[in-house]
Design a protein that fits this description.
Order of helices and strands: EEEHEHEHEHHHHHEHEHH
CATH class of one domain: Alpha Beta
Structural class: alpha/beta
Radius of gyration: 19 Å
Number of strands: 8
Strand content: 15-25%
CATH superfamily of one domain: Alpha/Beta hydrolase fold, catalytic domain
Length: about 325
Amino acid sequence: MNTDIKKKILVNGISQKIHVVSKDRSLPVLLFLHGGPGVVNRHNIFEAHSDLLDSFTIATWDQRGTGGSYGGVKVETLTINQLVEDAKVVVEYLCREFKKEKIFIIGGSWGSLLGIRLAYAYPEHIAAFVGFGQFVNGEKNEQLSYDFTLEAAKAANDEEAVKQLESVGPPVMGIYKGGFEGMMKQRNLMMKYGGYSKSEEKRSYLDSFVKPMILSGEYSLSDLLGIALGYKKVLKSMWPEVGAEDLNRYQIFEVPILVFDGKLDMNTPAELVEEWFEQLEAPYKELIWFENSGHNPMGDEPERFKKLLREKLKQFKA
């Protein structure tokens, strides 16, 4: 039986938007945790990856403070701990709605931080977690990303880029001079020099993320307003805490942990992932490298990513 649920549910006192699609309610549920924080992605999931509906019920969620979950959110509630509590409620809702004991969680970038924290704190209803663009340590992450971008700009004799980068960094505990605007300068230049994806070279944050959201048709006008007003608010509010986060604090897990990571990623640098992953203890763990991918191997190598996702998750009961 086909199911298409697009509505707001009450999550810890705030109405939050979900979109869940299923061709068969008996299939396992796969919940996507978007990045940012504050950068919704349900348009991309349902446009580019709807073929996963042959194997999963796909669930997406606009996190607190952005998109369809913008309204009524106080800045002081935009914390990692609060987002973990929100994610717990969304997982419990999906278990009830689809009569499941456990569901799968997949998170990219900020979503990989949130997913790891969720799996650590509330393993009861999680069959397995899959991370990509895997976050490890905020301070080291930004320093490596900044150094990569500055070296690439110098090698290209891009004097204007070098000037911009030197004006906003180096970052201190993940924070750039100028805050949000400083980080956006670094991110745009990092993307220009292929640190996000080879396919994203010479594209801006606006072209890669904002325009596809607007043109997708996935979002209502109020959702789009929530994106426009929310993503910057959420990112600015949460980034100091994200920049100080270190997932090496969380080592022992009760759920399977899989990481699908792009070797070319300089947004959340791949070189931090292996050492962190080696020390994890979990009932099952596996790190799979995507040699030709950057921050988003699901977009860079979609067929291999989704083939492995189906194969690897089959072994776990959900």
